[in-house]
Specification:
Strand content: 35-45%
CATH superfamily of the largest domain: RimM
Distance between the termini: 69 Å
Shape: elongated
Radius of gyration: 22 Å
Number of helices: 2
């Protein structure tokens, strides 16, 4: 029997930090170039859009370390200058890259405030302690934050992230308590084809 072959990682990837893990928080994403002098538009995920530059150097999901200098808010984006990026081509090469900072660089949230990164992966239990699933994502579709609960057996469903529906968020204990609305997982019955009986 032949010995298993060892596969080496791609050059340069072994030292990349795992920025999508629990030690890092995504504070924005590069939306594209702005102008011809190397400025970029960043979609901020911070409460104050200009705060994307407040936490020191950021790491990208491609392993780059960048120093951000926020200049101004423009619509829903922040126009940012990045050290070493001085033309449109360099700026455009950053499009789509997510920007991360170490969790330790962020201030502690106030009571009843949470970083999304701290909630992802936490178990969700009901009022009697029965496990419903885990927090997969937190989304805002325009009517307030929604928690996507991923079920252990597959699939997921959304819950409003309100005090009524999620009365307890205990980061230290490592779980959320949810009181899902009645009929939360009910599937509506499908109506027959309109062409029936014609």
């Amino acid at each position: 029997m032949a010995a298993p072959t060892k596969i080496a990682p791609k050059p340069g990837t072994a030292a990349l930090p795992a920025v999508d893990g629990p030690g890092y928080v995504c504070i924005g994403a590069v939306a594209g170039a702005h102008g011809i002098r190397g400025e970029v538009k960043v979609k901020p995920f911070t409460e104050d859009p200009l705060a994307v530059g407040d936490y020191g150097p950021v790491l990208t999901n491609k392993g780059l370390t960048l120093e951000l200098q926020p200049l101004r808010v423009q619509g829903t984006a922040v126009v940012v200058r990045i050290d070493g990026v001085d033309d449109r081509n360099k700026a455009e090469a950053l499009r789509g890259q997510r920007l991360y900072v170490p969790r330790a660089a962020l201030p502690e949230p106030d009571e009843d405030e949470f970083y999304h990164a701290d909630l992802l992966g936490l178990p969700v239990v009901d009022g009697t302690g029965n496990r419903l699933g885990t927090v997969a994502t937190i989304q805002d579709f325009g009517a307030g934050d929604m928690i996507e609960v991923a079920f252990d057996e597959g699939g997921s469903a959304f819950l409003p992230f309100t005090r009524e529906v999620v009365p307890t968020v205990d980061i230290k204990a490592g779980h959320l308590v949810a009181v899902p609305p009645e009929g939360w997982l009910d599937v509506p019955e499908e109506k027959g084809d309109k062409g029936e009986g014609a």
